[in-house]
Specification:
The protein is α/β, with parallel strands linked by helices and 272 residues long. It folds into 2 domains: 6-167, NAD(P)-binding Rossmann-like Domain (Rossmann fold), CATH 3.40.50.720; 175-268, ProC C-terminal domain-like (ProC C-terminal domain-like fold). Helices cover 54% and strands 13% of the residues.
């Protein structure tokens, strides 16, 4: 992006994944990027791999960048921003945060300036460029700001813009969702083993069934119910299994899982 520099604050899994997506998409030159982290040894490995600028001093990032991407834990956001403000973030800077639960209002109060802020909730499938990222912006975020943020996150998957009031629910559903689906996959694999299938066979069957079913649901654009009915023959195996799911209140449990994760996302933003 011409005459724009980006600083990624945090070299954890998500920070490095976003960096990789940006470079693969050719959005920034390595000289236009700066990555910060507390551990210098990890930064050196990333610099060797990608050829970008690195530092353990977030104050340098404040001086360097027109876009500051916060890829740190929610509890670390206040400390990071306080350190950066000792140098002074550029007056024209755009702040993008992927810290779960930390509101735009909270970030703005920590910065102490009326800077445009885009808050993003993404998820771990971004590691294979199949992430789902939902963006929300402060009132002073322009279409150009959203365009910049969407380009960054489109490099690792799909994007969507929603009002911030939905982001805790997004966190509970698509942010935490991969963890819930991995647990379901693990359980189905074990179920296959319990019924006598070799583990590698059971794993293959489960993964291809989940992938195929998801793609069918996506491409058909139908509600899940009629697709479920297509599999559910009268008196057959599927309806017998669904009866057990209803007896054990699987539907109610999943509703509660997302509700609880959403509540926790809200709580994370209140931690100091």
């Amino acid at each position: 992006m011409q005459n724009i520099k980006l600083a990624i604050i945090g070299a954890g899994v998500m920070g490095e994944v976003i960096l990789g997506g940006i470079l693969d998409a050719g959005l920034f030159l390595p000289s236009e990027l700066l990555l910060t982290a507390q551990r210098g040894d990890k930064l050196e490995k990333i610099k060797e791999k990608h050829g970008i600028e690195i530092t353990t001093d977030n104050r340098l990032a404040a001086k360097f960048a027109e876009i500051i991407l916060l890829a740190v834990k929610p509890a670390d956001v206040p400390k990071v921003l306080k350190t950066m403000m000792t140098e002074g973030i550029k007056e024209s800077a755009l702040i993008i945060s992927i810290a779960a639960g930390v509101s735009i209002e909270k970030i703005s109060s920590l910065v102490g300036k009326n800077l445009p802020i885009v808050r993003v909730m993404t998820n771990t499938p971004c590691q294979i460029k199949m992430g789902m990222s939902v963006l929300s912006g402060s009132l002073n975020v322009t279409e150009e700001h959203f365009s910049l943020a969407k380009k960054i996150f489109s490099s690792i998957g799909e994007t969507m813009i929603l009002p911030e009031k939905y982001l805790d629910a997004v966190t509970g559903l698509s942010g935490s969702g991969p963890g819930f689906l991995f647990l379901i996959a693990e359980t189905f694999i074990d179920a296959g083993v319990l019924q006598g299938l070799p583990r590698d066979v059971s794993r293959k069957l489960v993964l291809e069934t989940m992938i195929g079913s998801s793609l069918l649901l996506k491409k058909s654009e139908k509600h899940p119910a009629p697709l479920k009915d297509m599999v559910t023959s009268p008196g057959g195996t599927t309806i017998a299994g669904i009866q057990v799911m209803e007896e054990y209140k699987v539907r109610a449990a999943l509703l509660k899982v997302v509700e609880t994760a959403t509540k926790r996302a809200s709580e994370l933003g209140k931690l100091e």
